[in-house]
Write a structure and sequence with these properties.
- The chain is of the alpha/beta class and 350 residues long.
- The chain has 17 helices and nine strands.
- The structure holds 4-hydroxy-3-methoxy-5-nitrobenzoic acid (1DF) and manganese (II) ion.
- Manganese (II) ion (MN) binds next to strand 1.
C-alpha cells in the first residue's frame, strides 16, 4: 500500500512529530542497567521486554529504532511521511546516573544532528537533555540548537522526580529564552506508582504512559511554571494524554481546591488549566487515529495547536495515514494538522 501522492497533489506535507530513534550504544548502556542492582520496574517492563523478546513487534522496533538512514526513509516513503521530527526513545538518558546521562545526551544529539544534516528535507531532530543536571541540560539546549536540532525531548519523570520542582526550572528558562518547545513524552510510571499498573499489564503505552505523563503536565501547570515562563511552549502526545477530555473538571476542581486553601502544594495560579492548555501546549495525535478525538481537541485548544504524529516505529501503522487523510475537515485545517502547525511549533525551515 505505497502512497503515490505527492505533497503538491494533497495540498500538504505530512510531518510526523513524535518519531523515535536509539543509537545502538544506548542498548549497551541499558543492558548494564537491567543487569545491575534493583533496576526500575517500569524500565524492566518496557526496555527489558523490547530488548529480550523474540516477538515480531519487539524485533521490528529494536531494528528500526537504530536506523536514521535508508531503512527509515524507505518506510517513510512507503507510508507517505514527508518529514519526521525524531527524538531519542523513552526513557532516553533519564534512567541513567547523572554524569553518564549528561555525556550520552551529547552523543545522541551529535548522531541525530549528523542524520539531519544528511537528510535535511526528510528528518529533523529534538535535543535530548539530562534533567539530572539542570545546568548542563540548559547548556545542551543551546548546543543542540547550534547543531540544527529543534525542540527538546523530556521523557516524563526522572527517577521519580517531576519538572514541577523548581530545581529543574533552568530547563524551562533555557527553552523559553531560545524560543524552542519542550516535548513532554511518556515514560512508564515511577517505582512508587507502578505496582497496580504492572500487576495487570497496564503500565506501558496502553495506559500507564498516559496517566503518568498527563499528571506530569498537570503538575507543571499547577506549580505555576507558565506564570513564571509565560512564553514557554510544551508539546504532549497521545491526544494530550487525555487532558482535553478532563479539562472542564480540572478547571472546576482546581479553582475549588485553591479557594478552600486545602493543600500547601496547590497555590493560586494566574490562569485556568484550560487556558494553559490552549496557550502553552501543542497536542499531537501520536497513536490516536480518531477523527472524533482530534476534532474535539481542535475545538478545545484551537486548530493551530493540534498536529500529526505516527510514533514510528512503535506504532508503524501506515493505514492510519489514509484514515487521517480522509478526515472530514476543512482543507486549511487539515494542512495545519499535517504540516504548518509542526513547522511553526518546531520552527522548521526545511
Ligand atoms: C511504546 C509507545 C514505547 C510509545 C515508546 O517508547 C513510545 C510502546 C519507548 O508501545 O511500548 O514512545 N508511544 O509513544 O506510544
Ligand atoms: Mn512515543
Amino acid at each position: 500500500m505505497t502512497d503515490k501522492t505527492t505533497a503538491a497533489d494533497r495540498g500538504y506535507r505530512r510531518i510526523a512529530t513524535e518519531e523515535a530513534f536509539a543509537p545502538s550504544e544506548l542498548f549497551d548502556i541499558y543492558r548494564k542497567i537491567l543487569a545491575g542492582p534493583n533496576p526500575d520496574p517500569g524500565f524492566v517492563s518496557l526496555m527489558g521486554f523490547y530488548m529480550s523478546s523474540d516477538s515480531a513487534r519487539a524485533k521490528h522496533i529494536i531494528e528500526y529504532l537504530q536506523d536514521l538512514d535508508a531503512k527509515r526513509i524507505a518506510h517513510m516513503d512507503e507510508a507517505g511521511i514527508d518529514h519526521q521530527v525524531i527524538a531519542l526513545t523513552s526513557p532516553g538518558v533519564q534512567i541513567m546516573d547523572a554524569d553518564l546521562a549528561v555525556s550520552f545526551a551529547r552523543t545522541a544529539n551529535d548522531q541525530l544532528a549528523d542524520a539531519v544534516r544528511k537528510h535535511p528535507t526528510r528528518l529533523s531532530g529534538m535535543i535530548a537533555v539530562a534533567p539530572q543536571n539542570p545546568a548542563e541540560a540548559a547548556k545542551e539546549i543551546q548546543r543542540g540548537l547550534g547543531l540544527g536540532l529543534k525542540g527538546v525531548i523530556v521523557n516524563s519523570h526522572t527517577h521519580g522526580e517531576y519538572l514541577s520542582d523548581p530545581k529543574f526550572w533552568e530547563i524551562f528558562e533555557a527553552a523559553e529564552a531560545h524560543d524552542t518547545p519542550i516535548y513532554l513524552h511518556p515514560n512508564t510510571p515511577p517505582r512508587n506508582m507502578i505496582q497496580p499498573f504492572l500487576e495487570c499489564g497496564l503500565d506501558g503505552a496502553i495506559y500507564g504512559f498516559g496517566v503518568e505523563t498527563g499528571m506530569h503536565a498537570l503538575r507543571i501547570m499547577t506549580a505555576g511554571v507558565f506564570d513564571r515562563f509565560p512564553k514557554l511552549q510544551m508539546i504532549i502526545g497521545h491526544m494530550g494524554e487525555a487532558l482535553p477530555f478532563w479539562s472542564y473538571r480540572l478547571d472546576y476542581m482546581h479553582r475549588a481546591t485553591v479557594l478552600s486553601d486545602r493543600y500547601p502544594s496547590m497555590r493560586p495560579v494566574k490562569r485556568k488549566i484550560s487556558e494553559y492548555l490552549s496557550d502553552n501546549f501543542y497536542i499531537t495525535n501520536s497513536g490516536v487515529a480518531s477523527e472524533a478525538a482530534i476534532k474535539f481537541t481542535q475545538n478545545l485548544i484551537g486548530v493551530d495547536r493540534v498536529m500529526y504524529a505516527m510514533d514510528y516505529p512503535y506504532q508503524h501503522a501506515i493505514e492510519e495515514v489514509a484514515i487521517l487523510d480522509a478526515m472530514d475537515m476543512p482543507a486549511q485545517d487539515k494542512k495545519r494538522f499535517f504540516q504548518t502547525n509542526a513547522e511553526e511549533a518546531f520552527r522548521l525551515t526545511t
